[in-house]
Amino acid sequence: MKFIRIFSIVLSALLLGAHFRWHGMDPLSIPAVLFPALLFIKKPWAARTMQIILFLGGLEWVRTAIQIASRRIDAGEPWVRMAIILGAVAVFTAVSGLPFSRNKGLRKQYGLEKASSVPPVK
């Protein structure tokens, strides 16, 4: 089960890196792909940094969806399916960091036991 939690973080990072690379934002693509290396640092600041990056990544997907939808609407092209797909990617990316707050094992591993007021999920 831990693999799935970690996999979602890595997949979100790879998707963000590919997104930035596709749009010519190379200075952001490399850090986006490398930020999961923070998983090896078992400190509260590393977990919180990953959560913040993932939340901001979700916002980036929302921004991109709005931008593409606007262009497609102006051109009279279909946009709903694209908005649903990018919306799902945005939600997936943003919630990938939740296990650090919701999972007792990860909270303990990263030293978030005392810092978190969220009840553990069993």
How does this structure look, described?
The protein is built from six helices and no strands. The protein is mainly alpha-helical and 122 residues long. It has one domain. It starts with a helix and ends in a 13-residue tail after the last helix.
Offer a quick outline of the entry.
This protein has one domain (2-109). The chain contains six helices and no strands.
| Order of helical and strand elements | HHHHHH
Strand tally is 0
Q: Helix/strand-derived class?
A: mainly alpha
The number of helical elements comes to 6
- Beta-strand proportion: under 5%
Main sheet? Answer: none
Tally of domains: 1
Helices and strands in order, then pairings?
Blueprint: H1 2-22, H2 26-34, H3 44-75, H4 80-95, H5 99-102, H6 104-109
Helix pairs in contact: 1-2, 1-3, 3-4
Keywords for this entry:
122 residues; 0% strand; mainly alpha; 72% helix
